[in-house]
Amino acid sequence: MKSSSRSFSSTAGTLGDFDPRSGSLVERALFNHRLWVLLLCLATTLFLGYQSSRIELNASFEKMIPTQHPYIANYLEQQKELTGLGNALRIAVVNKQGDIYDAAYLKTLQELSDQIYLLPGVDRAFMKSLWTPATRWVAVTEDGLDGGPVIPDDYDASPSSLGALKRNVQLSNEIGQLVAFDQTSSIIYVPLLERTPDGQPLNYAALSEQLESLRGQYQSEQIDIRITGFAKKVGDLIAGLKQILLFFAVAILITTAVLYWYTRCVRSTVLVVFCSLVAVVWQLGLLPLLGYELDPYSVLVPFLVFAIGMSHGAQKMNGIMQDIGRGMHRVVAARFTFRRLFLAGLTALLCDAVGFAVLMIIQIQVIQDLAVIASIGVAVLIFTNLILLPVLLSYVGVSGRAAQLSLKSEQAEHAGQRRHAFWRFLDLFTRRRWAALCIALSLALAALGFIVSLQLNIGDLDAGAPELRADSRYNQDDAYLTRHYGASSDLFAVMIKTPPSACARYDILSKVDALDWQLRALPGVDSTNSLALLNRRVLVGLSEGNPKWYELQNNQAVLNMITASAPRGLYNEDCSLLTLYAYLTDHKAQTLTRLVEHVEQFAAANNTDEVQFLLAAGNAGIEAATNIVVKQSNREMLFWVYGAVILLCLITFRSWRATLCAVIPLMLTSILCEALMVWLNIGVKVATLPVIALGVGIGVDYALYVMSILLGHMRQGVSLSEAYYRALVSTGKVVMLTGVTLAIGVGTWILSPIKFQADMGVLLAFMFVWNMVGALVLLPALAYFLLPVSKASAAGQPANLMHSATSSAERPQLSTATPLHRSAG
């Protein structure tokens, strides 16, 4: 920004001598009409504060899957034929004092099944338990095939009817699916609709609370209730994430305390925290107006907005505090600080916004919503922390003691004292030997980190729900179902399209049979089910149990007869779609990748015009598609975020050398963060994919604030050492303050019961700290080799050139008024 010559006068520090017509058009519009700015912000805060009370916390199954991926497109196209293969609950009712053939147990199971049947969002036509009519048994008798519902029509809880039930269960082929292997529990299978009958999206938080209420109602010394499924997992996440308010409060207390410790000024500390909270209020108020709601992944974004606001607010407060300490009037100090740091702050916020907005390329709506929500938050920071905060400080100022304290380093230097030992240490990185050593060490860390990052996995690396703690109730329930049932909660389904009425043809079933056998042999596949497998089993039954007949017979009449009585879950109504189920031992990335690759190879070799093997349905199939999208998006996302950050830095600095100094430390942090994910056994998935992009966007703030001041002084002919020291005592020490403070703030997330929140806390804390270290250590080391020495410095101009300027009011203007758009050389 340019300023008039009047701003360079030594008397410009007093309000009477300050020319209000100086500065840019934006500065004059804001500071010459300060009252209107405050009234407008007050009205906006009141309006959006009211709107924020309408914000909702919910989730959507379809928003969390890549609906444009071919696998998901196949699933959605056949969704009406595959009801229950996407979003479903599995509720295990356990008899802790016996088996399921107990009258009291069966009565409890019936009552619970009836109540679940009436819950909103349940796809009642496809719900299944021992008590539903669709659960049937089939047997071969001397009169031919016989069958009926598993619960006898004349069931009366007598010993004879219990015996009949036991016989029916043995004949139903439900052991391992609806009935546990040890027959001490049975499943209530509950497919869910995306919308309730009244057209409203399914409320997962409310559904989870209803399930917990039923668990509390029916669980006793005899009965245990185990619940798994997407809806319950999301419900538990939402319940756990309500504790984020506690972590948010702790983060506010920590940052406020550290900021006050640094400033020793109550009014400025309160204003910085207040403006950052106003940004959060504006963000939350805009969401319902724009039709957005928070979900388990975007609920952490308001804290990131608060953290970014604290970082920028502390820089503005520090600049005003130092200028007031040099004798300026608070209004003049606010305007000079606005001139000096607005461009750097705006560029930093644009980089933050780009870091968020680039997530839009990931074709998963929950991540795209996160990108929009975060971008809205960053946009409001331009008004609350770059504009509102300086205007407020121009009214209230800072305490005199705090203003003098902010210049402690300068005053000590003018008094002839040595610089602080820590500043002298950091200054070493502006010397050849230490700069070369720092760069060499960084290269070694980058190489080591890159080698380790090659082992980074895509997807979940743990069984159960990795978003929750291993000892959470949900993961304990999931582990129980995995141990006691062959049909695990991780279901992968292959869809086989055929011509109408052709699904029972021998040539088609033989291909399905071949794939069935191959999948069963794969590691990670516990069991399978298909129409071809059913034909084998029934043929054995029709042959008096002789295992010699356990073969798919090339007899179309027999195949048609068996298909006619087969469950509809194996084929659709017009016999044009078959479903091959693979029940997995887990949904780890390696298991899903192995399965997908095998099916893809089989499909490529066996697909014809009449038969197509399509991927994929079931929760594991959907997760496999999600992993593929995440893997494709990971590098593409980093390419775009770094491309945008580099472009913005080039526009700001007009120097490719300065841009390299700012960006290379970010790249090192990204590499080391991926290595850390490998070490902590964290995979790249929907919950963690945004972290690296966010870390780049937020981390560049530090480099921008340091480089803008350093570059401004170097362009005045100051040596690198002196320019770096001036950057340290102005913006650099605030970079240290915010880096450490925000790392501590997000570090408290490690205590969260939600594991993915804890993982994000660790990764963000790591990136905050390393980006800070990079900006303070690696940046000056790179500057030594990349930024050319000015002619004035090369000619032997004294290193204390700026000392005389710092003694007068001209000093801040000198670094401020220097246009940052000239080349650094």
TrEMBL record:
InterPro entries: MMPL_dom, Mycobact_MmpL, SSD. Keywords: Cell membrane, Membrane, Transmembrane, Transmembrane helix. Residues 805-818 have a biased composition (Polar residues). It is found in: Cell membrane. It is a multi-pass membrane protein. The chain crosses the membrane at residues 244-263, 270-291, 297-320, 341-364, 370-398, 434-456, 637-653, 660-682, 688-711, 723-751, 763-787. This is RND family transporter.
